[in-house]
Specification:
mainly alpha; single chain; three-stranded antiparallel beta sheet
């Protein structure tokens, strides 16, 4: 198994064996695909040291490490062999004669084997594992369902599998779990939505399912801490597709997200930062009493990422509503902005400057 290779061969982000290792200016090595996604998401810090990076950091190929990984693979083929006879494990998931215990045992093995090995994940899908896994996802047995969801999540981590899993009917199964599964199963189901939505075409497909976004919004209302966080993360993933923003708004997401943000779920501000980009989202936010107060609170107490989204959201609202400008002033936003002007984070400084300019243009302060 690939899991037996030296840990230094693994990317610190994906935890998978690196195929194209590159060195950041911080001196740490990552797989090129993983670190590029990190940078494309707007991060400008090293994932390990958290130290700031240049705006356009150079990725230097680590030829020595790449050669080591290649040579190790050639001389140690036995370490890369997958679980013997995976077809037997897959067959037990669909066989009418398999007992729940047998299926649970097979799923446990497959979850372990697919956790860090992308090659084995691809092999399973090529062997036709998806229908059997999805059948177990629909099981009435909570233990079997949870283990099947864990395996489905692992399979979805491979980009080559994401579209195929959706085509196999994964979304319908996952939506039912979001509504009727146990708390742990609902949280995993929401995480699967997030994983599948990494592929752009899947965002539109997921949103087009009548109950998908509605189920996530329902989970924001009825779920516990982990469920709410995973549901908000899933909404953030699929609402980067513009049509899904309107669907989330139509499902009543805005007041729920503002309430959750006020209760301490900072992930909600990231979703609001997407919904505020459309007219319907801004209109819904303006209707919520205390919306500005909650956003200003994020500027005072939020993380760096939360502050970024808080500034952006507040600026979008103040740009189209003079009343909200005066509300923001009364909540002390000018004083907060003066302090944020000195932030090291370039995005925070830029968003702060834009908000201050908006307030001035609306004559909220001189």
């Amino acid at each position: 198994m690939g899991t037996q290779l030296p840990d230094d061969f693994r990317c610190p982000i994906s935890l998978e064996i690196m195929s194209d290792p590159v060195i950041l200016p911080s001196g740490h090595t990552f797989d090129r695909v993983s670190i590029q996604r990190w940078l494309d998401s707007g991060h400008r810090t090293c994932p390990i040291t958290k130290l700031p990076l240049p705006e356009h950091p150079c990725l230097i190929p680590n030829h020595a490490l790449r050669s080591l990984i290649s040579n190790y693979t050639l001389v140690s083929p036995s370490k890369l062999q997958p679980c013997p006879q995976p077809q037997i494990l897959i067959s037990s998931l669909t066989s009418q004669s398999s007992h729940v215990g047998t299926k649970l045992n097979s799923l446990t093995h497959l979850v372990r084997l697919t956790k860090h090995d992308s090659g084995f994940r691809r092999k399973l899908t090529e062997l036709g594992a998806a229908p059997g896994v999805l059948k177990c996802v629909g099981s009435d047995d909570p233990s079997l369902q949870e283990k099947a969801l864990s395996l489905l999540l692992n399979l979805s981590l491979d980009d080559d599998n994401k579209v195929g899993l959706v085509a196999e009917g994964a979304i319908n199964r996952v939506i039912k779990v979001l509504r009727f599964g146990s708390p742990d199963c609902r949280a995993i189901a929401a995480t699967i939505i997030t994983s599948l939505a990494v592929v752009e075409v899947n965002k539109a497909t997921i949103g087009a399912y009548p109950d998908a976004i509605q189920a996530l919004v329902w989970l924001l209302i009825s779920g516990k801490g982990r469920e709410k966080k995973e549901a908000a993360t899933a909404l953030y993933a699929i609402c980067s597709f513009a049509d899904n923003r309107r669907r989330a708004i139509d499902c009543g997401a805005v007041p729920i997200l503002i309430s959750l943000l006020d209760s301490g779920l900072e992930r909600a501000i990231e979703v609001l930062g997407l919904l505020v980009k459309c007219k319907e989202g801004r209109e819904e936010m303006m209707k919520v009493n205390g919306c500005v107060k909650v956003l200003v609170s994020v500027l005072r107490n939020g993380s760096s990422r939360g502050v970024q989204y808080g500034l952006f959201t507040l600026n979008c609202l103040c740009t189209c509503c003079e009343r909200l400008c005066f509300e923001a002033i009364n909540e002390g936003v000018v004083e907060i902005c003066m302090g944020l002007m000195e932030e090291e984070n370039e995005k925070i400084r830029r968003y702060t400057s834009s908000l201050v300019q908006t307030l001035r243009e609306n004559h909220a302060f001189g």
